[in-house]
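hey can u check if this looks right to u? its 56 residues, i copy pasted from the old doc so theres a chance i mangled smth
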Amino acid sequence: MYQLTNEERKELRRDMAESSAWARAELKRRREEKAKQNAEHGTNNGSTAEPSPKRP
C-alpha cells in the first residue's frame, strides 16, 4: 500500500471540501428550480396549492 504524504492529504481534503460545497450548491439550485417550476404550474408534489374554483 502507498501512504499519502502530508501534502497529498491536504490536497485531497481540500478537493473533497470543494466537491462537497459544489454538490450542496447544485442540490440547492435544483431544489429551487423545481420549486420555481411547481409554483409556475401551481403544483406541489402533484397537488394544487389551493383547490380549484368551481365553474358554473
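Helices lie at 6-41.
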